[in-house]
Amino acid sequence: MRSGIDVECREVGLRDGLQIQETFFTTVGKIKWLTLEVEAGMPEVEACSFVPPKLLPQFADAIEVVAAALKTKGSIISALAPNLRGAKDAFASGIHKLNYVTSVSESHNMANVRRTVDESVEDFRKIVELRNATPGAENIILAAGLSTALGCTIEGQVSEDAVMRLAARFVEAGADELMVADTVGYANPQQVKGMFRKVIEEFEPAIPIGAHFHDTRGLGLANAFAALEAGCRRFDASLAGLGGCPFAPNATGNIVMDDLVFLMEGAGMKTGVDLDKLVAIREIIAQNLPNETLSGMYAKAGAPKGFTPASSIAAE
Amino acid sequence: MRSGIDVECREVGLRDGLQIQETFFTTVGKIKWLTLEVEAGMPEVEACSFVPPKLLPQFADAIEVVAAALKTKGSIISALAPNLRGAKDAFASGIHKLNYVTSVSESHNMANVRRTVDESVEDFRKIVELRNATPGAENIILAAGLSTALGCTIEGQVSEDAVMRLAARFVEAGADELMVADTVGYANPQQVKGMFRKVIEEFEPAIPIGAHFHDTRGLGLANAFAALEAGCRRFDASLAGLGGCPFAPNATGNIVMDDLVFLMEGAGMKTGVDLDKLVAIREIIAQNLPNETLSGMYAKAGAPKGFTPASSIAAE
Known about the structure:
The structure is a homodimer. Chain A is α/β, with parallel strands linked by helices. The first copy, chain A, has one domain: TIM Barrel, CATH 3.20.20. Helix content of chain A is 41%, strand content 14%. Chain A is built from 12 helices and 8 strands. Chain A has helices spanning 13-17, 27-39, 62-69, 84-93, 106-113, 117-133, 160-173, 189-203, 220-229, 257-266, 275-288, 298-301; strands spanning 8-11, 44-49, 76-80, 97-103, 141-147, 177-182, 209-213, 234-237. Chain A has an 8-stranded parallel barrel with strand order 1-2-3-4-5-6-7-8, surrounded by 9 helices. In chain A, helix 2 (27-39) runs parallel beside helix 3 (62-69), helix 4 (84-93) packs parallel to helix 6 (117-133) and helix 7 runs parallel beside helix 8 (189-203). The first copy, chain A, is globular and about 50 Å long. The interface between A and B is large, with 45 and 45 residues.
């Protein structure tokens, strides 16, 4: 984690937020969004997904966006790749970190990436091998995401054991990080606390654990707080709450980045992010997606009187 | 607390939700709302505020609404009274419980009820005396609410010490219950946890502690979870998140009752409330306030597949 911060908020809006957007978010707009967010102090930005443009035209400009992102300073630039082919392109782009996602529940994985969980793990193993064999790629961080880890729209409840088993398989295969995701917005904070305690106890500090919540049923930030209490220090979120999952009906939106940073900063956890600058960037989303309703309560209500973000307090 | 439940959710929408509504919510609509909510298992309903109809025409039907509420079975029927005069009317109406509210911050109390905090405490003392001296009123529960306990739009931060001192004064004056309120939606879950631990340790079990959160900056349900973790078992909320405070700009809405019940039931805490029946009652609000945007994510997204509310699990 970047020095001087207590908790890492990670912008995933440019990937998770845009992947089901039918409106093409201009390349200039994407670059402006991520550049300003890096300048606001965001420690990590997921810039795009490396998928065939035929499948997701939204990411047809992936190489250009990543190239621009890599010109900014101070943030980890990541991208998603759903398979070996995408990983190859991602490595060539020069990203710092690759995110790979597999659903814990078989049927959701099949619906999402048309592979069994076994095949997904094997594919990840090949991505690790490719990374290790590609000159210049050796330092790229490989993060394995466990989707539907807190519930599945097809299978319902997902057991902690299934999550722990798949996590262990990814670590064995060479994952540098794990990300536990409530892909479909099913999680309850009590459940989150138990799950994250277990995963963190088992894998940290060797393998950092990230959290990925959606606010589908209103509990997204309660879940983030529960994960924080369980020791989690890495959180995905999306500016203005953009996002969703094509296979999760009504799963509208990642947790809102601006509200998450407000939560963390108020809880005394330095994010390194300037809230005022962050909120101002919402305007770029509004301009590029004029028909999208932007989420976020902090942006609407403003800071409490006398609010002092943890990041604004000088270190001893 | 009613036997068989672990946590008490209290409907305050008919009072806090309606007090700044300019549209008159029909008496028939109010009675239908509260009657159906009692039937859905709601253990406590705040039916109205006893204030001069000239000031708040919304509550001109207070006596009629309370009379209808008292015909339902199984729930505590409460009402707010801002002063001795209102308390007298409230006692005469036959309610089970009286809620009285004072801001911890002087200037907010002055703006809200035009009295110093000292005067408010003295007024409460007279309400206790009146209750004790009124035949048939002896069993009416007197709850003292501490507004702006987690921050104030006029004074900014409010200290824990100030909250503890005012709480002690109300208990000394004869309060049967206390309610700690984030009236203006300033609270952070970390702060909530510390505050509720302190208040609960000091006053429970002799004096039950309730929590009252607004979702102004998106942290309402995170705050509710934090209070739950601190041991709080009584939560105010408003169906569809109706509400606000006339002196708190943009303080739009109590936490959403339906989402709160979903949180609690998913956390294994029995509320006694039937979520399906609860969600159906939103329609009455929609009919009576056609121009109001109803909040609530659970109602929009529905139950997670395989979701088992704690209250649906038979006791051993």
